[in-house]
Amino acid sequence: MNAHNHGLPQGTATGRHRRKLITVVCITLAGVFIQVVGAVWSGSLALLADAGHMLSDAAGVSIALLASWIATRPATRRSTYGYQRAEVLAALANAIILVVIAVVILVEALRRFSATPDIRTDVMIITAVVGAAANLTCLLILRKGQAESLNLRGAYLEVLGDLLGSVAVIVAAVVIATTGYRQADALASIAIALMILPRAWSLLRDVINVLLESAPKGVDAEMIRDHIIGVRGVVGVHDIHAWTITSGVPVFSAHVVVDGGTLNAEGVDQVLDRLNHCLRNHFDTQHCTFQIEPVEHATHESRQHA
């Protein structure tokens, strides 16, 4: 006998924060335009690198917005979970974009060590300060939502890197203005690239965990097993699976063995209610599927999982 609760939660984590993402895209694109103009005017690679990173942020968030819209499409007979995992694929694209941007910046920065042009530090500083202000505004907008969604977390981390990049540009401009050491611009560019790579890896690792259907963070199969066995009428549990469809949508399934006295309509109904209540309240899992089995059924199964 299979049973589940009333279905998947309405909407995904990214979808619930769509307006915030739209605002961040608009602010970021404005910052990109200002920084590109400032980079061309000042001759600063670091400023152009920061603009490139901000452009990748805007592209990544735009992808996340498109994916969050796709994720709202209803389930079909072929796509029984709907299209919610489109958000995860968007996060994957975002991580790849970050890696490409970092590599391009590193290559150009190394080339500039042998041929550094004149740089207008006054324009460089003013533009970097404007970019930092835009990034700080975006951070405040995304601060709460980034704990709920991979895409918002990716956007938050990217904007944080942009803010640090703007600080690096300001420091480089001050060094050039006071000492004349123009290679500080290339060093700041390398610093920006090195800040991007670890964040790209962190996002990529989370995406891989979702695609490999690893257990959600904070969910321990043995702890769930103990909770399930503690439910009145349950004598055993096996074939436990816990995974994530997309950010904010954890899923759980298990084969639950019950005693003979519970194998009636009323008893099974009560066990299912207790199991769903347990998973929902202790592990924040809304979508649970339980296969109820009598003790004697164990001889008919070849268990492949925990």
As for the number of domains, it is 2
Rg measurement, Å: 25 Å
What is the name of the CATH class of the largest domain?
Answer: Mainly Alpha
- What is the CATH topology descriptor of the largest domain? Alpha-lytic protease prodomain-like
Major sheet description: 4 strands, mixed
Pick out the low-confidence regions: 1-10
Give the SSE order as H and E letters.
EHHHHHHHHEEHE
CATH architecture of the largest domain: Up-down Bundle
Ends: how far apart?
20 Å
* Count of DSSP H/I helices: 9
Structural class: alpha+beta
**Mind telling me the CATH superfamily name of the largest domain?**
Cation efflux protein transmembrane domain
Shape by Cα distribution:
elongated
Total number of beta strands: 4
Estimated helix fraction: 55-70%
- Trace the largest sheet across and list its strands: 1-4-3-2
Overall pLDDT level? 79
What does this structure look like?
With 306 residues, the protein is α+β, with helices and mostly antiparallel strands. It has two domains: 2-211, Up-down Bundle (Alpha-lytic protease prodomain-like), CATH 1.20.1510.10; 221-300, Alpha-Beta Plaits, CATH 3.30.70.1350. It has nine helices and four strands, in the order βααααααααββαβ. The chain has helices at 13-16, 18-42, 45-71, 86-112, 121-142, 150-179, 183-211, 221-229, 265-283, and strands at residues 2-4, 234-246, 249-258, 287-294. The chain has a four-stranded mixed beta sheet. β3, α9 and β4 form a beta-alpha-beta unit. α3 runs parallel beside α7 and α5 (121-142) packs antiparallel against α6 (150-179). The longest helix is centred in the middle third of the chain and has 30 residues, at 150-179. The two termini are 20 Å apart. The relative contact order is 0.15. Residues 1-10 have low confidence and may be disordered.
